[in-house]
Amino acid sequence: MPELPEVETVRRGLTPVLEGARLTHVRINRPDLRFPFPERFVERLEGARVERIDRRAKYLLAPLSTGETWITHLGMTGRFTLDGRQLGEFEEPAPIAGKHEHFSACAERDGRTRIGFADARRFGFMGLIPTAEVETHPWFADLGPEPLGDGFSGAHLAEAFAGKKQTIKVSLLDQRIVAGLGNIYVCEALFRARISPLVAAGAVSRPRLERLATQVRAVLDDAIAAGGSTLRDFANAEGGQGYFQHRFDVYGREGQPCRGEGCTGVVRRIVQGGRSTFYCPSCQRR
Q: Which terminus of the chain, N or C, has less C-beta within 10 A?
């Protein structure tokens, strides 16, 4: 499933096309994705101007001139595609992504760019929420701070983890503690901070949590700079793939030598909370 860096990469790819643009030629090709499209979805988007493209956790948010916010979750295989070829005034935009394209529209500003949304497995979804109610909506009300925002720090982790016996790996995946972190980047951040994924969250000292918070930010920044990670389905809005998977220190490297300086350990894989955890038992201490 695309994680925060992948969603942020898509956001940055869509911004130059959608920000300030008016939506026209809106079409849906089926009644639902993971959930049904909102009632009168096409009519509510048609003619609206996109104020900007935001991201909250793994959601894309587009506040509209109508007072509503268009929400998209990519799910496992959802992807946006862009076609910048000039379209005639009455020309029908053709699908870019074949039979799995379920939504399309044109963004009109200086020219007209066709936008498509394809989702082969249909675990993604779209919604329309009054902009004033986004923060209190059930999708967002319980989310923790953004890991790249001012509210995320070692102090926040210390408060959230106080007395917590659950392992730090599983705790970091709790979206109520920090929003948007996923399995890949938690594994990578714990390795960089040299913290074992098996340690109880409440047993990690404040200095180590400060280091962890710094490494969470660093690994996310590095991944965003590399365009995210492509393991199977992810592609950015221009159709390109991410490259951070070539720089993984532990994720997917079971049985391979640890990349830690001076470490002779071997990367191990275990399962925690139903998810694969990759770590080095030699240099990631409890």
A: C
Whether 281 sits among the annotated catalytic residues: the reply is no
Instruction: Show the DSSP H helices in 111-182 as ranges.
Output: 154-161, 168-172
Contact 272, 167 (CB under 8 A): yes
Q: Which of 11, 58, 211, 253 is catalytic?
A: 58
What letter does residue 253 receive in the DSSP assignment?
-
State both tokens at 190.
């714990």
Torsional sign, CA 179, 185, 187, 193: negative
Give 284: exposed, middle or buried? Use CB within 10 Å, 0-12, 13-18, 19+.
Answer: buried
Catalytic annotation on 58? yes
* Mean pLDDT, residues 273-278 taken together: 94
Q: Tell me: the pLDDT tens digits for 154-191?
A: 999 999 999 999 999 999 999 999 999 999 999 999 99
Question: For the segment 4-54, what is each residue's pLDDT rounded down to a tens digit?
Answer: 888 998 898 899 999 999 999 999 999 999 999 999 999 999 999 999 999
Amino acid at 213: A
- Let me know if 79 is a catalytic residue: no
Q: What values do phi and psi take at 22, rounded to 5?
A: -100, 135
pLDDT value for 207: 97
Residue 2 annotated in active site: yes
DSSP string, 26-58: EEESSSBSSSBPPTTHHHHHTTPBB---EEETT
Contact between 119 and 100 (Cβ < 8 Å):
yes
Q: Check residue 285 and give its pLDDT.
A: 85
119: which 2 tokens? 């989702």
Strand blocks (E) in the chain = 22-28, 54-56, 59-63, 68-73, 79-83, 101-108, 112-118, 125-130, 268-272, 275-279
